[in-house]
Predict the structure.
Amino acid sequence: MISDLLIAFGVGGALCVLAQLVVDVGRITAAHVMVLFVVLGALTGGLGWYGPLVKWAGAGATVPLPGFGYTMVEGIDRATQTEGVLGLLTGGLTAAAGGIKAAVVFSLAAALVFNPRA
């Protein structure tokens, strides 16, 4: 149990450190890094390389940005097997709906609690 937590923390932390290094060394914006990591997660997920990391690291691999891309690809794969071509349009959002909903709800809660600055 503790080893699972340490693995998840280590993998998630390593992905975050890698993203920060890309921002600092690559001199590109954080928005570009976000898009890059989501696309890399989708690409490696589609190639079957990210799945074993998810099985080993759990939330350490699914919570960071590459995990979002991986979740989208896995959702599309499942939906195309059951719904056919329509799954290309619905599968990714269906798979990621929980995370998207959480982001919207928590953002709304933060906006209601804190006073935003211009």
